[in-house]
Amino acid sequence: MSEQTPQPPAPPPAAAATAPPARSVEEIKADPLVAAAVARVDEAILGAKEFAGEITLFADRDRIVEVCRAFKADGWNYLVDLAGLDYSKYPNHTGLRFSVAYTLYSFAKNARVRIRVWTDDKYPVPSVTSVWKTANWHEREVYDMFGITFSGHPNLERILMWEGFNGFPLRKDFPIRGIDTGARIYPEVFPEGGGPKEGSTGKAAADVNLYKGEWKRYGNWPAAQIAGGNGAKAPAKPAVAAKEGDE
Amino acid sequence: MFDVHEMEVNFGPQHPSTHGVLRVLLKIDGERIIDAKPIVGYLHRGTEKLFEHMTYPQCVPHTDRMDYVASATNNLGYVEAVEKLLGISAQIPKRAQLLRVILSELQRISSHLLWLATHAIDLGAMTPFFYTFREREEILDLFEAYCGARLTLNCMRIGGMPEDMPPGWLEDLQKLVDKFDGAMDEYESLLTTNRIWKRRTIGIGVISPEEAIDWGLTGPPLRGSGVEWDLRRAQPYECYPELEFDIPVGKNGDTYDRYLVRMEEMRQSNRILKQCIPMIQATPEGEIKAKISKVIRPPEGEVYHSIESPKGELGYYIVSDGKTTNAYRCHVRPPSFVNLQAMPAMVKGHLISDMVAVIGTIDIVLGEVDR
């Protein structure tokens, strides 16, 4: 029989070669999806990146309202999501600690884009409630969870935690197991807005705190392995009770 | 000289009509509402904080507990978002995709049946509750046969499904699907042309389409106002592009239209199920999971992915730092949280009992509002 061995197929190209090369900032800014809106506020867009087909633009914090208005005028009339991020434990991160991400959707274009701003404790972010009404509760939640203040917000108060709660839960230095909230249970003892004292897990108010023991670690729950990767061992002895936060 | 005696009344967290622990501070003049301020957070359990401390597969059961009434769609949103982050969305086998769609649509029907039961009971109609829960029990039996749980299913995995359907499951599903249209006619006969129902729902909680988009409403509240937008059509996922279904859209943006939209959505979900059953029988058995590594460590990046849950657009915004097996940040965009924000705008000037109707028609689940 004729040995008509077909040519072996060429080896599959390496994954890096088949994926399109990452676009530069100018190319992303000129993408037809966002080009018109970016053109109106060009100096306020400081950077851009793309991942999994989604465009993220980095905007200047002080001009975010203007940027959002330009986008809304271009057809991005639906604010999908307003999220806060804490970059303090992100590997190789330099720059401000917090970021606020605005995800927008346009009905006409049927596409999403994300705008991000960088901020810190000290810098309030201008509120975009005047652009989209739905930002109201989203910004309250970001304030509640991270402590990022929004200037010009109609009623910036806590929404998920109760008033008088002392702390911002989604920050990376807030312990996963929670903090002593005796202040709320015993208002006659603790001052208004009071809460955990320095280095406390209830120890400082031992006479009124019902739970007088240490915070124990229960089992091998692989919690709190944020930037250390898995395999972080439990501490040898939980003697350092006051410093027990996340490892 | 008559004064307007404004009274501030607490529609407290413990109340049978608030669908969970929702507190609304009402400023009323007699029985008319001048302003309503919802206060939420009574069911906040720190889900987003927990997501940062667990590996990606470990988070799946936690997503069940947010919208505990429709947990399959919560799971679906999360696993799809992680798959998008990993870049393997195209590699999910067809059988797994169809099974995901079947479970999501069953969940949509079950969630809407619960909505109908509770909404009607809030407004005084007790009978739909008994009728709808009959079919809902059969759906929960199907869930139990598949994954062992009735309510918080944990029925999806990153990359596919945990296991294949048990023998006889498709036949039971076929029986349910065949009788469901008749059951829908029964429910409609109770309320749709009922004079009392119409007087309590027509013209209540009206919201215009532009306002609805500005407030970020999604799901049946948005479609009831006339905006024809459904994520299964606009940003399709799984195998929805191959399925035929219509999107019901209302006209006036009031409670009655939202009721009609959800009733029709149940019929359309049944239609989708009827199409899926022969399609899934044609796929090879056993292929229900894509080949991914055991340890899920996505590359550095961020992704936002949303699906159409029974309540609206459920989105997951996941940021990965490329180095760890935990999400660096996983933010959930809950439809009920955003829809509830529009409630004060919808109840100004109505009576207190109309506010009960509006809370029911927005269909909130506090587990999702508070996470």
Radius of gyration of chain B: 21 Å
Mean of residue pLDDT values of chain B: 89
Give the strand line-up of the largest sheet of chain B: 1-2-3
What structural class should be given to the helix and strand makeup of chain B? alpha+beta
Please identify which CATH superfamily of chain B we are dealing with: Cytochrome-c3 Hydrogenase, chain B
Oligomer: heterodimer
CATH topology of the domain at 20-151 in chain A: Beta Polymerase, domain 2
The main pleated sheet of chain A reads as: 5 strands, mixed
Strand adjacency order, main sheet of chain A: 1-2-5-4-3
End-to-end separation of chain B: 49 Å
Give the termini separation of chain A: 69 Å
Low-confidence stretches of chain B: none
Percent of residues of chain A in helical segments? 10-25%
Shape of chain A: globular
Give the percentage of residues in beta strands of chain A: 15-25%
| Beta-strand fraction estimate of chain B | 5-15%
Number of strands of chain A: 7
CATH class assignment of chain B: Mainly Alpha
Describe, in plain words, how this protein is organized in 3D.
The complex is a heterodimer of chains A (247) and B (371). Chain A is globular and about 50 Å long. With 247 residues, chain A is α/β, with parallel strands linked by helices. Among the domains of chain A are: 20-151, NADH:ubiquinone oxidoreductase Nqo5 subunit (Beta Polymerase, domain 2, 2-Layer Sandwich), CATH 3.30.460; 175-213, no CATH class. Residues 1-18, 198-213 and 215-247 of chain A have low confidence and may be disordered. In chain A, the strands form 2 sheets. In chain A, strands 1-2-5-4-3 form a 5-stranded mixed beta sheet. The longest helix of chain A is centred in the middle third of the chain and has 12 residues, at 135-146. The N and C termini of chain A lie far apart (69 Å). Helix content of chain A is 17%, strand content 18%. Chain B has one domain (6-370): Cytochrome-c3 Hydrogenase, chain B. Chain B contains 15 helices and 6 strands. Chain B is globular. At the A-B interface, strand 3 and helix 5 of A face helix 1, helix 8, strand 4, strand 5 and strand 6 of B.
